[in-house]
Amino acid sequence: MKLLLPYTSERRFFIIQYLIGHGLLLLRSNKPDKQSKRIDILFNDVRAMEIRCWFDGITIEETDKSFLASHASRPLDLMEHGNRAYSLKGRGWTGFILGGIVSYNQDDEVATAPSALLKNAFGYEPTPYGGIKRDP
Fold first, then answer.
1. Total domains, the chain
2. Three-class DSSP labels, 46-83
3. Angle at 37 (CA atoms; ends 62, 5), nearest 5 degrees
4. What is the pLDDT of residue 123?
5. Does some domain include residue 39?
6. Is residue 2 part of a domain?
7. One-letter-per-residue 3-state SS of the chain
């Protein structure tokens, strides 16, 4: 499902996967206890980013181009029609992602299980440790 913005969580998130060919960036928060759900957030068509590998707490907001203008990596040079600028804020840091739509999923899966957000994107199911080929 599409992520409703702004999105805020106090949980720990980390980068679980980046697939360069399609620019898919998957952030994950594992279940901190048995009652909680695993949370996946998928950014599509990522062109540029400045984020940490893991972080405690996150706020994701869609922002305007002026937010990206001050970054030395010059992300605005990569912006194309349909791309969006997102600000990411955590405890003690601020970053950005320049990309397409953002999707969200909650489930009861274990930390290493493939994301439901990636299951239909390929002829295999990308996992953090390689791909599992699906039968046609």
1. 1
2. CCEEECCCEEEEEEEEEECCHHHHCCCCCHHHHCCCCC
3. 10
4. 47
5. yes
6. no
7. CECCCCEEEEEEEEEEEEECCCCEEEEEECCCCCCCCEEEEEECCCCEEECCCEEEEEEEEEECCHHHHCCCCCHHHHCCCCCEEEEEEECCEEEEEEECCEEEEEECCCCCCCCCCCCCCCCEEEECCEEEECCC
Q: Whole domain around residue 53: which residue ranges?
A: 7-133
Residue of 88, 24, 18 whose CA lies nearest to 50: 88
Q: Is residue 12 part of a domain?
A: yes
pTM comes to 0.85
Report mean pLDDT in 10-residue bins for the chain, 136 residues: 89 92 92 89 95 94 91 89 93 94 93 83 53 52
Specify the pairing of strand 48-50 against strand 102-107. unpaired
Cα–Cα distance for residue pair 79/65, rounded to 1 Å: 9
Domain annotation covers residue 1: no
Look at residue 33 in the predicted model and tell me its pLDDT: 86
Please tell me the predicted confidence (pLDDT) of residue 42.
96
Question: What are the residues whose beta carbons fall under 8 Å from the beta carbon of 21, sequence distance 6 or more?
Answer: none
